[in-house]
Design goal:
85 residues, 2 strands
């Protein structure tokens, strides 16, 4: 079984600020949960996979967002410096 997490960052007008970031990972099947005696151990496997993929997808989306921000902030600054010389 797989879990897929998609992160989208949108502008206020609903347009995409970055391309969607999609990451997937394997998670335990329903049959992997054997019963109440092993539920915590089985759930731990699920939880670790989900937390890892969540961190990964947010990191990738943040990097894309910051790259976009730096491009938009850097270009006007470079043009301003060019015009003052």
């Amino acid at each position: 079984m797989k879990m897929k997490i998609t992160v989208e960052i949108e502008n206020e007008d609903g347009t995409k600020a970055i391309e969607p970031v999609v990451v997937d990972t394997e998670i335990p099947n329903h049959d992997d949960f054997k019963g109440p005696d092993t539920f915590l151990q089985d759930f731990d496997v699920y939880e670790k996979a989900v937390l890892q993929i969540r961190n990964e997808v947010v990191k990738e989306a943040t990097e894309a967002y910051l790259e976009d921000v730096s491009k938009k902030k850097l270009i006007p600054e470079l043009e301003k410096k060019k015009n003052t010389k």
